[in-house]
Write a structure and sequence with these properties.
globular; 8-stranded mixed sheet; Rossmann fold; Arc Repressor Mutant, subunit A; alpha/beta; about 375 residues
Length: about 375
Amino acid sequence: MAKAFFNEQKEQSEVKTAIVAKYFGAWSHVISAYLSKKQDKRIAYIDLFAGPGRFDHGSKSTPLLILEMAIQNEKLRNNLVTVFNDKEDNNTSTLKKEICNLPGIETLRWAPEIRTEEVGDKIVKEFESRDHVPTLMFIDPFGYKGLSLRLINSVLKDWACECIFFFNYNRISMGVSNDVVQEHMEALFGVELAAKVKEKVYDMTPEERELTIVEEMCNALIAMGGKFPLPFRFRNSAGTRTSHHLVFVSKHPLGYKIMKEVMAKESSSLTQGVPSFEYSPASERQPFLFDLIQPLDDLEGMLMEKFAGQTLTMAKIFDRHNIGKPYVKSNYKDALNSLETQRKIQGNPQIEDRRMQKGKRTCSEETTFTFPKLTSRNEL
């Protein structure tokens, strides 16, 4: 199994690794700045299914990328605590060698802790009993064994702690209706929700089934305090089926906004500038399907209705509307500029007075927009 896992399709494994590493870079910068005047400046990165450090095609996986980032940054060199675990001896022994070969690894104040344990109840209880320093935990199992709401919450419960986990949709979709693995599904969703999901998806279409399973997973995260979940979908090489999701969960909207920007840049397609939040090798071969979707037009209509009769800054419009939507900050700026150009809203300063940048009028976070009151839904 471990061999198959680390022999993932090259592009998908690299996109997944890039998302985690880029988010860690942004997250660690924000948290380190906040802790700069605190006595305890430690932050942590935990990877419970760390593997050997490299994929079979030779690319570095997250442990090596995170450590290289720490070596190159003085604050991280002094303050980052890392824990890498894998149940396979051959993986941890190879990882140790790879880490030892990193130039500058000896400059880290806290040497990486490498553990060889199966992820289960013992680790969950250990983490539940700890008060964690700000921690980013990455859970990337081959299937679903070891992944549970308790494990996620064992770290997420503490301040500035966040989690990114691999959600193997194919295996979980088969598992929700399989009594043999009921214990694992109950660990993943909780007893009541696992039964609810099993009943709901019984005769659904594949598309409905996927939306329901992922939505219920996100609802379970929200219920335990992870207010801001964000999934990123991976499709198979033909683009016809979902293989898995990478799910991020945070208790703070800033983490959500940062990860949304990271995932947007790793999306394999954009429609009207709106990211797909998925990686599909087939996206570029199916442009007609994407041309039929007009997400930016939809955003314009939503803004006209949501903020009717109000005057707000661009920043407040974004903050009050973006959660749970597939739009990033640049999409809101484009939609607001478009609405003003159509004379549907009024900007201050007006669009004609804002400077040009790369052929487009700028829209700062302080620019205010006044929306008219709606007298009829036909005005949208």
